[in-house]
Amino acid sequence: QVPLVESGGGLVQPGGSLRLSCAAPGSISSITDMGWYRYAPGKERELVATMSSDGRPHYAVSVKGRFTISRDNARKAVYLQMNSLKPEDTAVYYCNVYISTTTTPSSEYWGQGTQVTVSS
């Protein structure tokens, strides 16, 4: 798998904001879905938000109303605007790309992870 390039993590106080960015390399094409997942300490991987190629978003209940996902298909980029951050949002966030076609097996790619820490 070719890693996606992601950035934007950091340390922020509760109630603060961060914006995560992710870009797929040029070798990846025909992207179906792009999104974000996270590993919180001691917990399993959780879907945070995804967006289909035609702009349909999906959010975890825990972040709906606080996080906003956006996508730039021309740049093969996806973003996650995180507002009203809570300590429970502390996690390593991973960008994800999913490809599904009618002629080849589906494939999936991941970013290297970026740490988001919400603490006072």
Protein described:
With 120 residues, the protein is mainly beta. It contains no helices and eleven strands. The model has no long low-confidence stretch (mean pLDDT 95).
Which parts are unreliable, with pLDDT below 50 for 5 consecutive residues or more? none
Radius of gyration: 14 Å
Query: The biggest beta sheet, please?
Result: 7 strands, mixed
Structural class assignment: mainly beta
Care to count the β-strands?
11
Q: Can you tell me the overall shape?
A: elongated
Order of helices and strands: EEEEEEEEEEE
Roughly what is the average pLDDT, rounded to an integer? 95
Helix content: under 10%
Which strand-content bin applies to the residues?
over 45%
Helical stretch tally: 0
Q: Give the CA-CA distance, first to last residue.
A: 37 Å
